[in-house]
Amino acid sequence: MSHVDAAAGDVFDLTIIGGGPVGLFAAYYAGMRHMRTKIIDCLEELGGQLTALYPEKYIFDVPGFPKVLARDLVKSLVEQAMQYSPTIALGETVQTLEVIQKADGGAVHPSSATDVMVYKIVSNAGVHLTKTLLICAGAGAFSPKKLTVPGAEKWENNGVHYAVRKKAVFADKDVLMVGGGDSAIDWALNLQDVVRSITLIHRRNVFRAHEDSVRKLLATPTKIMTFCELEGLIEKDGRLVGADVINNQTKEKHRLNVDEVVVQIGFNSSLGPIKHWPLEIERGSIRVGQHMETELPGIFAAGDVATFDGKLRLIATGFGEAAVAVNYAKHLLDPHAKVFPGHSSELGHQSSGVTI
Ligand SMILES: Cc1cc2nc3c(=O)[nH]c(=O)nc-3n(C[C@H](O)[C@H](O)[C@H](O)COP(=O)(O)OP(=O)(O)OC[C@H]3O[C@@H](n4cnc5c(N)ncnc54)[C@H](O)[C@@H]3O)c2cc1C
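Above: inputs. Below: predicted complex with flavin-adenine dinucleotide.
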């Protein structure tokens, strides 16, 4: 435990690890309760599993929506959360957690649930200070599934890409897209206006992507090779110049001229370093109490990552868990603030309870 002047840092009231549906709703709720809030997510986009795994699927069991595309639900959740302008840190994987000191400058008494602590969270990209923490890390940090062909590592970010950050990288290039899901098809469509050529290979002949996107791609000059897998990368004069592709049905081989390979074959997820934090971990999930509180004062968990007796891993129940966690975090920070926030529909009319 280190003792630093936390007041000198930017200490948030609530930091949420995970910008999935539950983390997003928690951010809205925390904003409504006037908490300075930050969301950290290792992905480059908000939305968690909905964005990373099934943006084009309909969800039928979110209250108020007879059916809603995952992508559209995320859009609404982001719009709702952004009303209170939380700070958003994307592309950051949270690694370590440390107690710095009691927020009021006193000694640390981790055993007392009423103490407000300052926690230092270190990610691969920076340091974050917070008085309370809500872990909404779902199934864990997502990382793209990587190619296993020889030499793929060597070309990473310099010929082999697991994300498209700047379209300019692909300008006037022969591009090979690997994958058959939404991300592969969407990026193949999105890159049309800059590439010299684009070939898409998919190991099956059925696409997981949305039918409409596949139709749109079929109408472009993209060369689509089904039942094909990448077998090797070809180098010439220190540059990636080609790719060997094999048809997994006929075993026929093809050599393609390729400058850049974009790989969109899904994600792996792992709770990673959070598993080693001093929390009660039960079969990969964080055990919480009735207030969604963990072993550590001021640290809560909600959504897929949290477990308790009777737990259901659903978006609908995760929203409720987020509201419970945020209201108790608020009460912990300010014992005068009621746990029950009142009804949002009445917020415009009720007394704020603030006396000046
Ligand atoms: C194909 C599919 C269909 C589904 N359909 C439905 C459905 O119809 N109805 C339903 O209710 N549920 C459905 N689910 C389940 C639903 O998606 C999850 O219950 C929901 O996403 C959980 O939300 P969450 O916010 O808890 O976690 P997630 O959505 O998993 O978000 C967690 C976020 O935390 C981030 N993260 C994790 N670890 C770290 C770290 N160390 N540092 C930084 N960021 C981190 C991740 O990148 C991720 O963005 C479906 C799931 C799948 C896979």
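The first strand starts at residue 11 and ends at 17.
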